[in-house]
Amino acid sequence: MAPGTVRAALVRIIPHLCAAAWVMARQGLNRAGRGLLAGIGSNCPVCEGAARAGLLCAACAQAALRQSAARRCPRCALRLGATQAGKHGGLCVDCALHPPAFAHTVTAFDYADPFNTLIARYKGARRHVVASALAQALEQAVRIEAAARVGSAIGPLPIDAVVPVPASRASLKQRGFNPAGELARGMSRRMALRLLRGVLRRRHEGAARQASLMRREREAAALDAYVCARRLDGLRIALVDDVMTTGSTADAAARALLAAGAASVTVWVAARTPRSL
Ligand SMILES: [Zn+2]
Ligand SMILES: [Zn+2]
Questions:
Q1: Residue 255 included in any domain
Q2: What is the count of structural domains for the chain?
Q3: Does 65 or 277 have the greater pLDDT score?
Q4: How many angstroms is it from 98 CA to the middle of ligand 1?
Q5: Is 150 contained in some domain?
Q6: Residue 240 in this model has a pLDDT that exceeds 90
Q7: What CA–CA distances, in Å, run from 189 to 133, 137, 185?
């Protein structure tokens, strides 16, 4: 091909190449821009108001804090009514009559409107969107509560390691992840605590989740539902779950942790069901 012909072909093709390059660059910039915006800001997962990426807005964080700091049974975090205050040494009736194996519970909020939507989304397809918000709310509850307990500035927590409540095989198959496990991972990262994964295991499947069983029967079946895969001598454990309903799961898990030598078990739950079912 003669040099003149090549030059002529280039003159014809270069504008097209430039246009194509510009379109590709613009698409790339758009993608990069969307990624950047997603990292900088997004809507609050509770109220849809403006918030930092994935986190609660200031108003919802405050609302969660008011809920976590409401009058609760210190043992199981059940919210107590005004008439229950001062009775049973500050405990709820259940904890006064049948003390659970765990010593203490901190919750981020009640499993009720508006925060129950967070749990529903967390267990659904949008878990990545709300995982940070759940850990954020639980962390602020733990830190504020710890400070209130010692009556001073926030110091080191009396916790050595974080342990998630293991999911059942059926739940893992359905969701593809363990909500308690993800939350425990977020808490260990945020609070610079050891995460002990796979230490607590379900001993057997089935009996504890049969809806046809009465509550007492479910509790009895759940009592030995967990076992520890290794010794935890002297460790102060934070047992993490997304929701506490009756407390029987946490009770059984705490029994296994204590049987493995744990010095104490504190429960951290994102949401506490207001009344026992
Ligand atoms: Zn909000
Ligand atoms: Zn209680």
A1: yes
A2: 1
A3: 65
A4: 38
A5: yes
A6: yes
A7: 14, 14, 6
Cα dist from 156 to 23, 126, 152, 192, whole Å: 54, 33, 11, 11
Q: Looking at residues 101-111, what average pLDDT do you find?
A: 96
Residue 15 lies in a domain: no
Q: Looking at the domain assignment, is residue 146 inside a domain?
A: yes
Average pLDDT, the chain: 82
Quote the CA–CA distance of 138 and 158 in Å, as a whole number. 16
Distance 225 CA to ligand 2 centre (A): 21
Q: Which of 209, 244, 245 minimizes the C-alpha distance to 225?
A: 209
In the predicted structure, residue 137 carries a pLDDT above the cut 50: yes
- Beta carbons of 123 and 179 less than 8 angstroms apart: yes
Give every strand in the sheet of 161-164, ordered side by side: 104-110, 264-272, 236-244, 161-164, 194-195
- Residue 252: give the domain boundaries: 46-272
Cα 57 to ligand 1 centre (Å) = 4
Whether the Cβ atoms of residue 72 and residue 79 lie closer than 8 Å to each other: yes
Q: What is the amino acid identity at position 103?
A: A
Both tokens assigned to 167: 């999911």
pTM: predicted TM-score of the whole model, two decimal places: 0.79
CA 82–ligand 2 middle distance (angstroms): 15
